[in-house]
Design a protein that fits this description.
The protein is of the alpha/beta class. The chain folds into 2 domains: 212 residues, Rossmann fold, CATH 3.40.50; 98 residues, no CATH class. Helix 4 packs antiparallel against helix 6, helix 5 packs across helix 8 and helix 6 crosses helix 8. The longest helix is centred in the middle third of the chain and has 19 residues. It is globular.
């Protein structure tokens, strides 16, 4: 029933922040929100490359949780900004372990959406003994079919006018491989060329993540402070299959056995369509898959928010 949907918790400020040197020349920004000594949790932002934002803190009851959020390598307030060196899925998995140890947690709930779900699954399959629960949104398994959906054929058929705009930014003789073509533009020595390419790359993603037209969201993604970092880092990960073997997260799903989990997936998610969530459910039968009939990709959509907040409440022992 849509009239009983949960909403985000009120705005909250971190009770502690800092920078952690994780090696390889990278320093990670982190923040902790909620109540010290509360249920440990880690939040994984999307992108790759997006960085965390104040609104993401609000998916947890601050009276019950002690949540760590951090900007992944090259993102947000982490340094060096937009760096691709030593920036892989497995580097970030290692950073998560360093952050867990810094916090003094034996185990924690892992919460991530979109690329954050990819990272959450990678971490949980590597360190299942460190995960109490998984709360996931907009499943992205980094299979070739998912990359093709975004960058070759699929979403292109739903947003033809925006797809043509995305493609037309690339020279005609390079349009058969947009990921590689954009890589060259994003690495161009001319900062204006890089900026324009980042704007075009991010605008296309912004279109696919918004269920209903949200020009402010799309424009912020296209031209916000993190636009170049988001585009460069995301393109870097896409070019490398997110540093995962084809189908790896499905093949290793047996390692999640015994970990309670909830997937909140929008039926009309045009960025990470429901097929991947469904495929994951087939090999991880214990997980609860919620397909939100009027939902898209973003956590701020009413049905998606409701599912995520109810899941985090439940795993903290709070009744509906």
């Amino acid at each position: 029933m849509t009239e009983n949907r949960r909403t985000l918790y009120p705005e909250i400020e971190p009770y502690d922040t800092g920078m952690l040197d994780v090696g390889d020349g990278h320093t990670i920004y982190w923040e902790r929100v909620g109540t010290p000594g509360g249920k440990p949790a880690v939040f994984l932002h999307g992108g790759p490359g997006a960085g965390c934002s104040p609104g993401q803190r609000r998916q947890f009851d601050p009276a019950l949780y002690d949540v760590l959020l951090f900007d992944q390598r090259g993102c947000g307030r982490s340094t060096p900004f937009a760096s691709l060196d030593h920036n892989t899925t497995w580097d970030i998995v290692g950073d998560m372990e360093r952050l867990r140890e810094m916090c003094g947690h034996e185990k924690w709930l892992v919460f991530g959406g979109s690329w954050g779900s990819t990272l959450a699954l990678s971490y949980a399959q590597t360190h299942p003994d460190r995960v109490t629960e998984l709360v996931l949104r907009g499943i992205f398994l980094s299979r070739q079919s998912e990359l093709d959906w975004l960058c070759s054929y699929g979403a292109s058929e739903l947003y033809p006018e925006e797809w043509d705009r995305f493609v037309d930014h690339v020279p005609k003789d390079r349009q058969d491989d947009l990921i590689e073509a954009y890589r060259d533009l994003l690495d161009d020595p001319d900062p204006e060329v890089r900026k324009a390419a980042a704007s075009a790359w991010n605008r296309w993603e912004g279109v696919t993540v918004t269920l209903l037209p949200e020009e402010d969201t799309i424009n912020n993604m296209a031209d916000g402070e993190n636009a170049v970092a988001t585009a460069r880092i995301e393109n870097h990960y896409f070019r490398n299959g997110c540093f995962l073997d084809e189908g790896q997260l499905l093949e290793n799903a047996h390692k999640l056995a015994g970990i309670p989990g909830v997937i909140v997936q929008g039926r009309h998610d045009c960025c990470t369509p429901p097929r991947s969530a469904w495929d994951l459910k087939q090999v991880w039968p214990e997980v609860e898959l919620q397909i939100v009939s009027d939902g898209g990709h973003l956590y701020t959509e009413p049905g998606i928010t409701d599912g995520l907040v109810r899941a985090s409440d439940r795993f903290a022992g709070k009744s509906a």
